[in-house]
């Protein structure tokens, strides 16, 4: 199997969490809209982020989707993908992580974000908000992070989408914490 044929399987896009498996993006959106509808007066952050981990013979990518009601809980799910080689280039890993996040974010970019916004819009005068982010699993400090030299390039890719603001460590917790948790587990290929 070639890398491109493996990446094309990304189009299957099935997500899971602790309660559900095999969720399509449409079902993920339903869950997000239901979560927002429970408290439409809240302040929300819609965040997508990807992390990766090199394992013997493959590199595992996990993309997380989180809708966070600030100070009052969250709903989350994730998707796993394996590329059948061990990626050694930090830039290649970071580029693929960002691209996979953008791929998922693209699904939500138009109608889905509008649907989320329509739920909270009647409560905007009461403080309801919706912020949208793509988390980049990279740090800005060159002494600490090997990814620092690529951060601006990845941020520009996300900013170019127009609907999402990029976030990097330490704020990028969906990529660096939530998705990271699931990259450690080996996959059965």
Topology (elements, then pairings):
Layout: H1 3-8, H2 25-38, E1 43-55, E2 58-69, E3 74-83, H3 90-108, H4 111-120, E4 129-135, H5 151-159, E5 165-167, H6 173-183
Parallel strand pairs: 1-4, 4-5
Antiparallel strand pairs: 1-2, 2-3
Helix pairs in contact: 2-4
Give the overall form. Answer: globular
Count of the separate structural domains: 1
Order of helices and strands: HHEEEHHEHEH
Task: Give the strand content.
Answer: 15-25%
Short description:
InterPro entries: Phage_KVP40_Orf299 (IPR007405). This protein is α/β, with parallel strands linked by helices and 189 residues long. It is built from 6 helices and 5 strands.
Report on this structure.
This protein has 189 residues and is α/β, with parallel strands linked by helices. It has helices at residues 3-8, 25-38, 90-108, 111-120, 151-159, 173-183; strands at 43-55, 58-69, 74-83, 129-135, 165-167. It has one domain (3-182). 37% of the residues lie in helices and 24% in strands. The protein has a five-stranded mixed sheet with strand order 3-2-1-4-5.
Key features of this structure:
189 residues; alpha/beta; five-stranded mixed β-sheet; 6 helices; 5 strands; 37% helix; 24% strand; globular; disordered N terminus
């Amino acid at each position: 199997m070639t890398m491109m044929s493996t990446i094309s399987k990304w189009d299957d896009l099935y997500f899971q969490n602790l309660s559900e498996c095999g969720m399509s993006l449409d079902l993920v959106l339903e869950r997000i809209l239901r979560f927002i509808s429970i408290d439409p007066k809240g302040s929300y952050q819609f965040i997508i982020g990807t992390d990766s981990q090199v394992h013997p013979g493959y590199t595992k990518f996990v993309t997380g989707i989180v809708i966070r009601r600030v100070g009052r809980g969250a709903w989350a799910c994730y998707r796993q993908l394996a590329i059948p080689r061990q990626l050694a280039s930090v830039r290649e890993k970071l580029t693929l992580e960002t691209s996979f996040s953008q791929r998922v974010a693209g699904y939500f970019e138009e109608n889905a974000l509008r649907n989320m916004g329509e739920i909270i819009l009647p409560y905007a005068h009461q403080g309801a908000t919706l912020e949208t982010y793509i988390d980049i699993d990279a740090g800005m400090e060159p002494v600490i992070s090997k990814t620092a030299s690529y951060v601006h390039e990845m941020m520009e890719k996300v900013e170019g989408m127009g609907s999402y603001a990029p976030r990097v460590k330490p704020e990028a917790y969906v990529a660096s914490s939530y998705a990271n948790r699931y990259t450690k587990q080996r996959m059965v290929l």
